[in-house]
């Protein structure tokens, strides 16, 4: 049985960029919080997870954006479980504007973790029934594939250290931080004049306070008016170790035309 969870946010000034539009990193904070609140409502609180040394770790995001909301707008977030089996779960999100239109769709994949051993573990008895599942997916037939980099492409490279403010309750860099780091590498001529409309993220390995990170950012024009930015966030001491990959697509405002969402205009009342 499907069990949707709903929350809402009014976009604040410090959650917006220089165009007073919700930042991608704040959006991901909202998504993360909605998942936590959904679990809280089912009895799987952070205290419960800490006591049992268990937790959910996100491994993939795919965010499809029709438009980003502006400062002062109130948005509603619906989230629900599509599928939960053994050690993995699929979670979907719809984000609605004040008119009840879906403006953002999100698919995500999560792994249930043993927090002491830092490895996947089977879900608890009864967890599948509590979360429920729905055949409705925010992004149909999602495979979480990321674009590859062609041989000979030259990246922009920078290095930095993970600081205390980048870490969360598990002691590792929070998943939102990888996307913040990747957005910092987007060239100004893209970030300031274009709009992001598609973001894919894969998390491969944890990093911690003091870890040295090397960011390798590739920029390409995939068609007229569309740019793709791919960031590899690697271990600066061994670049074969990839912490995360982030791929984003950007369009000029005039060429930004997204397909209508599956439930556009769907009532947001329960």
Describe this protein's structure.
The structure is a single chain. This protein is an alpha+beta fold and 270 residues long. It has 2 domains: 1-143, Thiol Ester Dehydrase, Chain A (Roll); 145-258, Hotdog Thioesterase (Thiol Ester Dehydrase, Chain A, Roll), CATH 3.10.129. It is 16% helix and 40% strand. It has helices at residues 24-41, 46-51, 127-131, 175-184, 188-191; strands at 5-10, 54-65, 74-85, 88-96, 102-114, 119-120, 156-161, 194-203, 212-223, 226-235, 238-252. Strands 1, 2, 3, 4, 5, 6, 7, 8, 9, 10 and 11 form an 11-stranded antiparallel β-sheet that branches. It is globular, with a radius of gyration of 19 Å.
């Amino acid at each position: 049985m499907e069990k949707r969870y709903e929350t809402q946010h009014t976009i604040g000034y410090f959650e917006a960029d220089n165009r007073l539009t919700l930042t991608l990193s704040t959006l991901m904070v909202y998504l993360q919080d909605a998942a936590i609140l959904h679990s809280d409502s089912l009895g799987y609180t952070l205290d419960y997870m800490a006591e049992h040394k268990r937790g959910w770790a996100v491994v993939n995001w795919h965010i499809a954006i029709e438009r980003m909301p502006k400062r002062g707008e109130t948005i509603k977030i619906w989230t629900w479980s599509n599928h939960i089996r053994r050690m993995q779960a699929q979670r979907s999100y719809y984000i609605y504007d004040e008119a009840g239109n879906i403006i953002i769709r999100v698919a995500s994949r999560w792994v249930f973790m043993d927090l002491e051993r830092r490895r996947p573990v089977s879900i608890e008895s009864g967890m599948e029934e509590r979360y429920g599942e729905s055949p409705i997916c925010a992004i149909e037939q999602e495979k979480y594939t990321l674009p590859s980099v062609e041989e000979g492409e030259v990246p922009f490279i920078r290095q930095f250290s993970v600081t205390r403010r980048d870490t969360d309750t598990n002691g590792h860099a929070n998943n939102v931080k990888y996307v913040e780091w990747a957005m910092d590498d987007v060239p100004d001529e893209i970030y300031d004049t274009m709009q992001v409309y598609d973001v894919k993220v894969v998390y491969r390995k944890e990093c911690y306070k003091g870890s040295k990170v090397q960011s390798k950012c590739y920029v390409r024009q995939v068609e007229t008016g569309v740019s793709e930015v791919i960031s590899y966030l690697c271990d600066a001491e061994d670049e074969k170790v990839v912490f995360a990959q982030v791929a984003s697509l950007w369009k000029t405002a005039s060429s930004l035309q997204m397909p209508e969402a599956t439930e556009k205009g769907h009532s947001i009342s329960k």
